[in-house]
UniProtKB/TrEMBL annotation:
Record-given protein name: DNA-formamidopyrimidine glycosylase
Matches recorded under InterPro entries: FPG_cat (IPR012319), FPG_Glyclase (IPR020629), FPG_N (IPR035937), H2TH_FPG (IPR015886), Ribosomal_uS13-like_H2TH (IPR010979), Znf_DNA_glyclase/AP_lyase (IPR000214), Znf_FPG/IleRS (IPR010663)
Signal peptide stretch: none
Reaction equations catalysed: Hydrolysis of DNA containing ring-opened 7-methylguanine residues, releasing 2,6-diamino-4-hydroxy-5-(N-methyl)formamidopyrimidine; 2'-deoxyribonucleotide-(2'-deoxyribose 5'-phosphate)-2'-deoxyribonucleotide-DNA = a 3'-end 2'-deoxyribonucleotide-(2,3-dehydro-2,3-deoxyribose 5'-phosphate)-DNA + a 5'-end 5'-phospho-2'-deoxyribonucleoside-DNA + H(+)
């Protein structure tokens, strides 16, 4: 699932391409991904002619502020990715004209396409069809986002506020807490593993057993790793499926070269040489070094 760095990368790319543009039309072959309004025809009617005034994010949500006080919210979920370019429907499949997307398998999974007034298209590719799309008003958006925790890279999210946020939890393992969107927004399975490896903290460690020094290491690692991941364009883990993250151009992110533990089970820890393990914590897998994470 795209996490904060991937979503932030997408936001920055979108700002360079679609800001101040206007939606002319929209197509889907999977109307079930449109959660609000309930009818795709109503969604289409309402979004046509809307101008994109602002693009931002909250946690993993991509948010477009539109004209007439409308909001377009897209949560890419597990395998969704926004792409920008031009496609033609040939023999029942969308084909990109040129660039990194031309021969990409992602073109087979385009389920939502917006036509823009600059002649380009904004498409949502989603292998698993879990993505959520909503067209709503600001009041409804505020309600949806009201339970989110603070943004980990905000300037005013100091260590003291981080510590205060963690201490609100009476119990829980640190990996699960880092991934809880109601506590801190935007961190998922990939970056919780990477943060805890960098901080030398065992993912099973209970929140109440963390010392101030350990919390400081986690806070420092969180800020550094998320910032670095954004700098290199997010994570595109190599595999043979079209579900991995792409930038809107179709290019892959560069964090894979920096990844220390996530999906590296069976490999040697780059810090101490111990074999990295994969274990289950609360229904999710954690990857860690049992020797230098304690």
């Amino acid at each position: 699932m795209p996490e904060l760095p991937e979503v932030e990368t997408t936001i920055r790319d979108l700002k360079n391409k679609v800001l101040k543009g206007t939606f002319l039309d929209v197509w889907t072959d999977f109307p079930e991904m449109i959660k609000l309004p309930k009818s795709f025809e109503q969604f289409k009617k309402e979004i046509k002619g809307k101008k994109i005034e602002k693009v931002w994010r909250r946690g993993k949500n991509i948010i477009f502020d539109l004209s007439d006080n409308k909001i377009l919210l897209i949560h890419q979920k597990l395998t969704g990715h926004l792409l920008y370019g031009k496609w033609e429907l040939k023999k029942g499949e969308w084909q990109a004209e040129k660039g990194p997307l031309k021969d990409d398998l992602m073109n087979r999974f385009l389920h939502l396409i917006f036509w823009l007034d600059n002649g380009k298209m904004l498409a949502l590719s989603d292998l698993r069809k879990f993505a959520k799309v909503e067209l709503l008003d600001k009041e409804t958006l505020e309600k949806e986002l009201s339970s989110f925790g603070p943004e980990p890279l905000d300037k005013d999210f100091t260590f003291e506020k981080f510590k205060e946020t963690l201490n609100k939890k009476e119990k829980g393992k640190i990996k699960q807490i880092l991934m809880d969107q109601n506590i801190i927004a935007g961190i998922g399975n990939i970056y919780s593993d990477e943060i805890l490896w960098e901080a030398k903290i065992n993912p099973f460690k209970e929140i109440k057993k963390l010392s101030d020094q350990e919390m400081k290491r986690i806070y420092k690692a969180m800020r550094e790793i998320l910032s670095k991941a954004i700098e290199v364009g997010g994570e595109s883990i190599p595999d043979k499926t079209p579900g991995q993250f792409r930038r809107i151009s179709g290019e892959k992110g560069g964090f894979d070269k920096l990844r220390k533990v996530y999906r590296r089970e069976g490999e040697k820890c780059s810090r101490c040489g111990t074999i990295i393990q994969r274990v289950k914590i609360g229904g999710r897998f954690a990857h860690y070094c049992p020797q230098c994470q304690y």
